[in-house]
Amino acid sequence: MTPTDPLGQDHVHPPEGRQQPMPPPGCPAHDGVTRLYVPEFAADPNAVYESLRAQGPVAPVEIAPGVPATLVTSYATALEVLRDPRNFPKDPRRWQQTIPADSPVLPMLMYRENCLFTDGELHRRLRSALNDGLSGVDSGTLRGYVERGAATLIDEFAPVGEADLLTQYGRLLPILVFDQMFNTPPHLSERLTKALGTIFEGVAADAEQANTELVLCTVELVEMRRAEPGRDIVSWLIAHPAELTQEELLSTIMLLVAAGIEPTQNLIANVLRLLLSDDRFAGGLTGGSVSVDDALVEILWTDPPMANYATTHPIHDVYLAGGVRIPGDRPVLISLAAANADPALSSARASGNRAHLAWSAGPHVCPAQSQAMTIAAVAVETLLDRLPDLELAVPVDDLTWRPGPFHRALNALPVRFPAVRPSAQTDENPGDNRWNVSPAPTSSTPQAPTSKERPGSSGSGEPRRWLNSLVRWWRGL
Ligand code: HEM
């Protein structure tokens, strides 16, 4: 049987003598190449997935200008790839030599000595340390961290009667929680929280300095915990029998921050958008008739925060079931979002089914699913409890999405509500400045709520330059 070869076609040039209709400028499929980094893709990714699916279970895409990749859109093929680490290894080092050093996707895809980019025994060793570190934080303790952080943030905007729930809540809360999980001492806590807030705000001008600050704080934290261990993830990682080297340790802590914070921010924002815009959940805000967990599971199916990722690097062409060829000269990304929407799955998507791929699958499946669910669920419950009459300040269709090939991330989530007084909790520990933080910079916090992109906001398509400088630091270790 001749293998089907959806990637062997020339997708760049139309066959001679055949006139191709010209797509409108900015179309994700302009020039025959499907570009996942343009704003038009972010505006309607499902339409793009549908047209890619017409090409077969895998399709060629560009994840940055001149950076080709293979995107898997079929659920069954996604599982086949994710469960075959021998043919689909994570190590990107051979590939990354072939793309420009300043490529905006490099920071998300380049090699670091942590479990995300390693295979086999090294991966098992690094992941065992990370799993044990994560499991040291019990769910009751984690709930407490989220509740305190949420109350602190809500107190900031509750008296105002309006807020951007992305920049003033969803984006900050996971940072505060990680601060607690790392048991950062107050003098480092404020520096770290501010640095992370600036970094995730994505304002390039401030990012370089914020990165340096993040790195310095992490190194200082590790040194402190080496000298004086505590009951926290950093101390547990240091003491783990896997005996992580200093480079592995710092890379693992940075992985926890990078892999943990941004998707959780987007999970919180995406689920709040659903709850505030969909009539099926409207009763749940006031009457409690629909569980927040149901909304979370729905988002993990329909708008997974990591939309296209779980990247692997086959070292030669691989033929999958049905003769599908995956070329060995480019990264393979799983479209977790497209696989979830695979028409072949329609019965499996029934309410409550958790077979979605939002956490990926196989040896690199997200190790922090329960922690992420707890953070997101408590974040939403606490907010709705304090501000039950919350409503979107703009029509849901006016909300815009941040461009980028990997994530499903809103630009802003403006809301209004009857103003309420702050709770008493922020005065409880006046001597401890751990929670005495203002929401990060507010260059993207609207004066009047609006969902449209603003100059200088993280939604402007700004490449994540802050990650570049972090990478430079990693290289220099
Ligand atoms: C507490 C928050 C979180 C932490 C600490 C965390 C941590 C991690 C880590 C360390 C990995 C790499 C595992 C490995 O390679 O063996 C990972 C993978 C992954 N995580 Fe999470 N994560 C968090 C939240 C989330 C959320 C909210 C999502 C999206 C719903 C998510 C989706 C994923 C996916 C898709 C992968 C697989 C990536 C790949 O194989 O390339 N994570 N996560």
**Main beta sheet: strand number and arrangement?**
5 strands, mixed
**Ends distance:** 51 Å
CATH topology: Cytochrome p450
Structure class? alpha+beta
Instruction: Count the beta strands.
Output: 10
**How much is the average pLDDT?**
82
**Measured on Cα atoms, how large is the radius of gyration?**
22 Å
Proportion of β residues?
5-15%
Can you identify the CATH superfamily?
Cytochrome P450
Question: What's the CATH class, please?
Answer: Mainly Alpha
Which stretches are poorly predicted, pLDDT < 50 over at least 5 residues? 1-21, 426-477
Strand and helix layout:
Blueprint: E1 34-35, H1 39-43, H2 45-53, E2 58-64, E3 67-72, H3 75-82, H4 93-96, H5 106-109, H6 120-135, H7 139-157, E4 162-164, H8 166-170, H9 173-181, H10 186-201, H11 204-227, H12 233-239, H13 246-277, H14 279-287, H15 292-302, E5 308-312, E6 318-319, E7 325-326, E8 332-335, H16 336-340, H17 369-386, E9 391-392, E10 414-416, H18 465-475
Helix pairs in contact: 6-12, 7-9, 7-17, 9-13, 10-11, 11-18, 13-14, 13-15, 13-17
The structure holds protoporphyrin IX containing FE.
Describe the structure.
With 477 residues, the protein is α+β, with helices and mostly antiparallel strands. It has a single domain (30-475), classed as Cytochrome P450 (Cytochrome p450), CATH 1.10.630.10. 44% of the residues lie in helices and 8% in strands. It contains 18 helices and 10 strands. The strands form 3 sheets. Strands 1-2-3-8-5 form a 5-stranded mixed beta sheet. Strands 4-10-9 form a 3-stranded antiparallel beta sheet. The longest helix has 32 residues, at 246-277. The radius of gyration is 22 Å and the shape is globular. The model is unreliable at 1-21 and 426-477 (pLDDT under 50).
